[in-house]
Design goal:
The chain contains four helices and no strands. The protein has 151 residues and is an all-alpha fold. The chain folds into two domains: 100 residues; 50 residues. The radius of gyration is 38 Å and the shape is rod-shaped. The N and C termini lie far apart (83 Å). The relative contact order is 0.06.
């Protein structure tokens, strides 16, 4: 038996309606098995050994049904998580593209902010050079720069 084969094959689906139908079908199968086993158990023709065998078969069938339900519920949770993660990944990819593509809004906003900062640095450097040419001493140059940049 390979990893892909199973004693209890459970179809994998992301359709919540189909998943609900599969759960209802499994529950109905469990109820049918229980009814058959109860009928056999109550039959006066069964010996004690036959009752034990019927009980073991019932328990094995019930355990298989429970395992199938658990697997189906787990697969539903995994599928739901994957859908959520795929949406987040698409959103992050779109944001990255918007900020790295020259036609993106984020890219253009950051480019204009960068250009503004460079212009401000150039202006501050120009003011610092002018003040250094006009005044002697660190205190006088600092006062000149502060006065010109804040007016």
């Amino acid at each position: 038996m390979t990893d892909e084969e199973s004693v209890y094959p459970v179809p994998v689906t992301n359709d919540p309606t189909l998943q609900d139908a599969l759960l209802a079908g499994l529950a109905a199968s469990a109820n049918d098995l229980r009814a058959v086993a109860n009928g056999l158990y109550r039959s006066a023709l069964l010996s004690r050994l036959e009752k034990v065998i019927a009980s073991v078969i019932l328990l094995a069938s019930f355990a298989g049904t429970i395992i199938s339900l658990f697997v189906l519920i787990s697969l539903h949770g995994i599928a739901s998580t994957n859908r959520d993660n795929n949406g987040i990944t698409r959103q992050n990819t779109a944001t990255i593209k918007d900020c790295t593509d020259p036609t993106g809004k984020c890219y253009q906003e950051n480019a204009s902010h960068t250009a503004l900062l460079i212009a401000q640095l150039e202006a501050a450097t120009f003011v610092a050079v002018e003040c250094a040419d006009q005044y002697d001493g660190r205190a006088a140059i600092d006062t000149c720069i502060t006065t010109r940049l804040h007016h």
